[in-house]
Amino acid sequence: MSHRHPATISARAGIAEDTAFGAITPPLYLTSTYQLPAFGQPGPYDYSRSNNPTRDILGEALAELEGGAKAIVTNTGMSACLLALQLLTPADTLVIPHDCYGGSYRLFTNLAQKKQAFKLVIVNFQQQDWPEQIKRAAPTMIWLETPSNPLLQITDIAAVCQLAKSLTAKVVVDNTFLSPALQQPLALGADLVVHSTTKFINGHSDVIGGAVICKTQACGDELKWWANCLGLTAGAFDSYLTLRGLRTLTPRLQLQQQNTAEVVAFLQQHPLIGKVYYPGLVDHPGHQIAKRQQSGFGAMCSFELSAPPALLTTFFSNLRYFTLAQSLGGTESLICHPATMTHASMDAAAQATAGIGATLIRVSVGIESAQDLIADLALALDAVAAVQQQ
Ligand SMILES: Cc1ncc(COP(=O)(O)O)c(C=O)c1O
After folding, report:
1. Are residues 175 and 75 in the same domain?
2. What does the record give under GO molecular function (predicted)?
């Protein structure tokens, strides 16, 4: 485990290491292939699908941030998920949470049903009997997403890992919603961490990318082999941009969290807002676990609009600073309707089981002024109230 603070690791990744010209920022190596030193003599790099110096700097920073032996930088978050699943065979059982990201849910269920890639068991980690559900499943791998998307439910990573060890199951944690600046699952006992770096790690909504970070070198080597074999690795330019975004991860998140706390306080007292889902709230069922295993409550929250679904259009169309869009984790605030957007790939029954209703709204809070963000929400809610009174 690195002794360096995440803020230092991020800010210093690859800085002042250029041996050719002393460039402060690491160069962008836009090359598909590399000259051999001589016939029959391999160089450090041969082909950029296998290895690229710019991608390697990002990988080394992510491995250090998560406290892993090795990171594999992939071209999307979904390819990072697919890569981690290469550890499974058709004889193995994968346990997934009932409320994970819709795209991950689509990948798991379709690989299991259409390709028989593994056996799949869905567990509700919010039910008290989750340990019994897991023991019955006898899994090879347990997939966690905490806080979950979109309801910000919290799972006790250390408790799941302890049980997994006794069953010799591997634990994978999708750490996209917090990033290693706020949660380090490997230190809590997990074996792998998966990221959509598209989100907080890059933080500027201009790259799609992912990463898998392995606790052990052996696992890292195996997945690096698969990433090259399947062609899942990220391009140099995307890696360069992501490295640039990563430098400000800690200060961005600090500001985004501060803004989120203020937005949540506003939402909580508004008559047109029903339940607010944010792990920082003392009455959130996962608050105590979040306090223990996270170093902050994050910049995502969800809430129920206390109005008929027909008024969602009025609400969304009256917002100026919360842009209606799928993604999250950027410097700009985004808002989405999980049932028809991020979680549309779940059928109605799966959505109902996951608690995704017609008036659930998810917010990713950016770095704008909290005052402006709150005024924006207030105006949109006033517009909803005005329609209701007609
Ligand atoms: C928690 C989580 N995991 C994985 C993904 C997939 O990442 P990508 O869109 O970068 O492929 C997403 C995307 O929204 C996500 O929210």
Report:
1. yes
2. cystathionine gamma-lyase activity; cystathionine gamma-synthase activity; pyridoxal phosphate binding
**pTM of the complete model:** 0.97
Domain boundary among 220, 246, 272: 246
**What pLDDT digit, counting tens, does each position of 87-130 carry?**
999 999 999 999 899 899 999 999 999 999 999 999 999 999 99
Task: Looking at the CA of residue 208, tell me the nearest atom of ligand 1.
Answer: 10
Q: What pLDDT, in 10s, does the model give residues 166-193?
A: 999 999 999 999 999 999 999 999 999 9
C-alpha angle 58-257-371 in degrees, rounded to nearest 5? 130
At residue 369, φ and ψ (nearest 5 deg) are: -65, 130
CA 174 to ligand 1 center in whole angstroms: 9
C-alpha span between 369 and 375 (Å, rounded): 10
